């Protein structure tokens, strides 16, 4: 079991800055040239792999003999960038240009024929100029496959009686809701589904209307469903195939109620429901929820298996709470969510985000479909790199759950704000550890940061970091006037009697002003952060720490299109030191390549195509004829 301690304890140094570093300008320029060549030869094609392990945890690279001088030793981030780009280039040739290519790659990767309607879907993809790489759709099959282990008739009956449903009937889409006054998520999703008409078969999409995730089936049950799916997976004889979906006539009459057994009112124990969905041999499976949060922050005592010399190597694993039992006391999701309504029964429910252990079916977050500038990035995405401020900006509310007087210092957003505040860090360097109850400074030898070795980490942070809350959400809360906007007009903002002494609220900044900074970090709120797409679209370099999975995870690559950091935030100083210490060009390339890429694969058209293909798979898995429903026209 992974050991956890409240003290940081001894851990081997991850990388010695004092030993020297060198800029890999040749690698960066070579990568840029190879990208240009690949785009020229392959029609501006790229490919994802945020879900791959770049090398085994025990991998080491041979070093040249002799001592490294200043900037003479390759930095771990140089290696991660180099290897991520290498894998990215290796996947560029996997784009499908014809329906026959796409269907062939589908069969090779999925072990089944594509679903009926695949040809119309691919024709629309070509019309939309979409980049189709089969790996982009791995998430669909990860989410859908467990349902092959359930009776399709039961799935149809469960879905049709839920209170929030998008219905497709006879080539038209509409929705039903028992709460029309909620945020218009179901409306946004319905409009997206309408863009696919009349090509979808009849179906019912159950919608999760909450911020929080809902379905946590125990690991053993999911393993049972997956075993059934694998046993029935095969390429049937094309002569036995049919292209006609059965429809939903059997659910149009009298409907039997279905209660999946929602569990509510136990949010501080949510961790215990989650760990039951972890593999039996995972570090978190046998680590119970904290009986009380009135304790200090726990940190891991050894390097995480998903890191390489202190930096994220496998972003998918870095999101996984099953590998990180310390997150039970370091993320608001596991301290106390604003609301909780979960079930251990597998129900076909669609959602914009989920924890890796959740069993919802992912679709693009509704806010990504909004016309609000905060979510879609607006018409402009920032000035050219050379005109930006050489700094980092973050503004947000103190969300992430229901923080209270005896729990607030465990919340992830509070930790991020304190860790990025130079005054707070400077006070802790001077010995006033009570000033920062949300975190502990790592031992100086962990990353050997020059500023920390000199006792000037806080001063260094103050030179570039502008991170603050605009509201302190707490229970109970107070209010005070704060100057906001360019004219500094006064507005009432929420403050908090127990956390206000540790952090001051600051005026908000419009997205246009945030885009003037080079570095845009993003962390979770109550669930995923809906500003992420806007950050990726900007001319700034995005940084990301999250425990939430989203639909796009297979097409946005860490260290190529954004920079990942750990959910403890312990590596953020070393990451910023890397880019600020003479590697400005490396940051610019990530910002530029990320923006170019999302403009190809994260458009509304791409979200439509993802959901379209997902719904073809979903309609098949809930059909009694699912074993013989298949697209086989390319084989004739």
From TrEMBL:
Pfam families: Glyco_transf_90 (PF05686). SMART domains: CAP10. Residues 424-625 form the Glycosyl transferase CAP10 domain. InterPro entries: CAP10, O-Glucosyltr/Glycosyltrsf_90. PANTHER family: CAPSULE ASSOCIATED PROTEIN (PTHR12203:SF22), KDEL LYS-ASP-GLU-LEU CONTAINING - RELATED (PTHR12203). This is Endoplasmic reticulum-resident kdel protein. It comes from Purpureocillium lilacinum (Paecilomyces lilacinus).
């Amino acid at each position: 079991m992974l050991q956890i301690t409240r003290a940081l304890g001894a851990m081997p140094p991850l990388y010695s800055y004092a030993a020297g570093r060198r800029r890999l300008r040749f690698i960066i320029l070579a990568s840029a040239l190879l990208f240009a060549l690949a785009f020229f030869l392959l029609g501006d094609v790229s490919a994802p792999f945020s879900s791959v392990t770049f090398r085994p945890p025990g991998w080491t690279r041979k070093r040249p003999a002799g001592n490294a001088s200043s900037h003479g030793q390759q930095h771990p981030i140089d290696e991660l960038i180099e290897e991520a780009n290498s894998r990215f280039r290796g996947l560029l040739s996997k784009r499908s240009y014809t329906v026959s290519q796409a269907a062939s790659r589908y069969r090779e990767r999925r072990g089944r024929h594509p679903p009926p309607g695949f040809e119309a879907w691919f024709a629309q993809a070509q019309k939309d100029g979409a980049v189709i790489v089969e790996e982009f759709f791995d998430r669909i099959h990860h989410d859908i496959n467990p349902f092959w282990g359930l009776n399709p008739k039961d799935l149809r009956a469960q879905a049709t009686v839920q209170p929030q449903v998008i219905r497709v009937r006879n080539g038209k889409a509409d929705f039903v809701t028992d709460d029309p006054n909620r945020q218009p998520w179901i409306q946004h999703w319905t409009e997206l589904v309408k863009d696919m008409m009349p090509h979808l078969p009849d179906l019912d999409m159950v919608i999760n209307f909450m911020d929080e995730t809902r379905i946590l089936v125990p690991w053993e049950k999911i393993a049972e469903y997956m075993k059934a799916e694998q046993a029935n997976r095969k390429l049937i004889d094309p002569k036995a195939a049919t292209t006609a979906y059965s429809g939903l006539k059997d659910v149009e009459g009298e409907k039997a109620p279905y209660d999946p057994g929602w569990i509510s009112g136990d949010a501080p124990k949510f961790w215990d429901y989650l760990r039951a969905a972890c593999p039996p041999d995972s570090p978190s499976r046998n680590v119970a929820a904290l009986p009380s949060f009135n304790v200090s922050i726990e940190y891991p005592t050894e390097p995480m298996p998903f890191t390489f010399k202190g930096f994220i190597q496998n972003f998918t694993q870095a999101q996984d709470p099953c590998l990180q039992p310390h997150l039970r006391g370091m993320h608001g999701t596991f301290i106390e969510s604003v609301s909780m309504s979960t079930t251990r029964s597998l129900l076909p429910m669609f959602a914009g985000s989920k924890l890796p252990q959740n069993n919802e079916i992912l679709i693009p977050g509704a806010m990504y479909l909004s016309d609000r500038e905060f979510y879609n990035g607006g018409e402009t995405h920032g000035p050219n790199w050379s005109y930006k401020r050489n700094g980092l900006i973050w503004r947000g509310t103190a969300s992430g759950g229901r923080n209270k007087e005896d729990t607030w210092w465990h919340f992830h957003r509070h930790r991020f704000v304190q860790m990025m505040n130079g005054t707070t860090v400077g006070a802790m360097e001077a010995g006033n550890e009570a000033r920062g109850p949300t975190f502990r400074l790592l031992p100086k030898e962990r990353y050997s940061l020059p500023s920390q070795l000199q006792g000037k980490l806080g001063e260094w942070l103050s030179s570039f970091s502008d991170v603050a809350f605009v509201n302190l959400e707490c229970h109970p809360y107070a209010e005070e006037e704060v100057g906001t906007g360019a004219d500094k007009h006064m507005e009432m903002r929420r403050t908090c009697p127990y956390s206000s002494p540790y952090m001051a609220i600051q005026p908000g900044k419009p997205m246009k002003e945030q885009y003037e900074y080079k570095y845009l970090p993003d962390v979770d709120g109550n669930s995923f952060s809906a500003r992420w797409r806007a950050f990726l679209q900007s001319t700034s370099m995005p940084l990301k720490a999250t425990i939430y999975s989203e639909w796009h995870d297979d097409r946005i690559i860490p260290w190529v299109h954004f920079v990942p950091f750990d959910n403890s935030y312990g590596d953020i100083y070393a990451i910023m030191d890397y880019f600020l210490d003479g590697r400005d060009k490396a940051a610019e390339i990530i910002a530029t390549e990320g923006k170019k890429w999302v403009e190809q694969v994260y458009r509304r058209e791409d979200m439509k195509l993802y959901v379209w293909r997902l719904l073809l798979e979903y309609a098949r898995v809930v059909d009694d004829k699912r074993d013989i429903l298949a697209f086989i026209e390319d084989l004739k």
